[in-house]
Write a structure and sequence with these properties.
Order of helices and strands: EHEHEHEHHEHEHEEEEHEEHEHEHH
Helix content: 25-40%
Number of helices: 12
Largest sheet: 7 strands, mixed
Cofactor: thiamine diphosphate
InterPro entries: THDP-binding, Transketo_C/PFOR_II, Transketolase-like_Pyr-bd, Transketolase_C
Protein name: Alpha-ketoacid dehydrogenase subunit beta
Shape: globular
Radius of gyration: 19 Å
Distance between the termini: 50 Å
Organism: Streptomyces luteosporeus
Structural class: alpha/beta
Strand order of the largest sheet: 3-2-4-5-7-6-12
Keywords: Oxidoreductase, Thiamine pyrophosphate
Oligomer: single chain
Length: 326
């Protein structure tokens, strides 16, 4: 394919197509992924081209979907499971954390489970209850799982390729509000490590760290701050487990201030782990406490209120101003 401008949704589709073409052991499974092409049309056309034995419409039973994927992985397949919406993953939570995450250790390394679980996550799409959750910290807390989230089409393509090729289970969170964001995708590039963070904007006064849907928000905040003479560095974390603390540390040693941004609630969120680790590593460099921006510690609200719930430009800039005021 070479280089082409794609949306994140189309990049994921292209990545799945490449994986299906390259390895007959790759399977795509999930609710409505076949004939419908997924509720977001991310898997559109795959069943038509690869058949119902490779792209499988499953019953509405998340626990059964993941359990079946585990069995297939034990038989040498590489299943790519789609959970239709973030809030639907919890019926499968037991299978994921007590079986999928533990099998490698339980078998003393003799058994591998190369399963990818794709989860569209996050809000800002005007959806009903259980359709706008950000549960990434729940999975990052579980040893044995890798947890990643792309923020752009290039990463969406390559990080999914790397996840499918991994012999470890990967939870692949797709920022659904960004599905239609478009960028150049080079399918011939040599990708960097799956779990390496990336500096997407250089700066000197403060570091913003985000992943998935909030990277774009942080870039917008950095652009707005620049108009007031503030230089913000933006890091796309890309991976929530493991976390590339070295890249964050290097940035904070330069800027001396850090604000961590994610859609999920701040309370016990992934930002807390980043704040704690960077405080330990950079204690003598920091000129302000590490601040966190995220959702509130409350159930996700009805869609007409989600703009008040979700962190946006103003809340990020407010935390930037607080950090710079020290």
């Amino acid at each position: 394919m070479g280089t082409e401008k794609l949306t994140i949704a189309k990049a994921i589709n292209a990545s799945l197509r490449t994986a299906l073409e390259s390895d007959p052991k790759v399977l795509v499974m999930g609710e409505d992924v076949g004939k419908l092409g997924g509720v977001f049309r991310v898997t559109d056309g795959l069943q038509k081209d690869f058949g119902e034995e490779r792209v499988i419409d499953t019953p509405l039973a998340e626990s059964g979907i993941v359990g079946t994927a585990i069995g297939l992985a034990l038989r040498g397949y590489r299943p790519v499971v789609e959970i239709q919406f973030d809030g639907f993953v919890f019926p499968a939570y037991d299978q994921i954390v007590t079986q999928l995450a533990k099998m490698h250790a339980r078998a003393l390394g003799k058994v591998k489970l190369p399963v990818v679980i794709r989860i569209p996550y996050g809000g800002a799409i005007g959806a009903v209850e259980h359709h706008s959750e950000s549960p990434e910290a729940l999975f990052a807390h579980v040893a044995g799982l890798k947890v990643v989230s792309p923020s752009n089409a290039q990463d969406a393509y390559w990080m999914l390729q790397q996840a499918i090729q991994s012999d470890d289970p990967v939870i692949y969170f797709e920022p659904k509000r960004r599905y239609h964001d478009r960028a150049e995708v080079d399918t011939t590039a040599i990708p960097g490590p799956l779990h390496a963070a990336r500096t997407v904007r250089e700066g000197t006064d403060l570091t913003l760290v985000a992943y998935g849907p909030m990277v774009k928000t942080c870039l917008e905040a950095a652009a707005a701050a620049a108009e007031e003479g503030k230089s913000l560095e933006v890091i796309d974390l890309r991976s929530v487990s493991p976390i590339d603390f070295d890249t964050v540390q290097k940035s904070v040693e330069k800027t001396r201030r850090l604000v961590v941004v994610h859609e999920a609630p701040v309370f016990f969120g992934s930002g807390a782990e980043i704040a704690a680790r960077i405080t330990e590593r950079c204690f003598y460099h920091l000129e302000a406490p590490v601040l966190r921006v995220g959702g509130y510690h409350a159930p996700y609200p009805p869609s007409r209120l989600e703009d008040e719930y979700l962190p946006g430009l103003d809340r990020v800039l407010d935390s930037v101003d607080r950090a710079l005021a020290y």
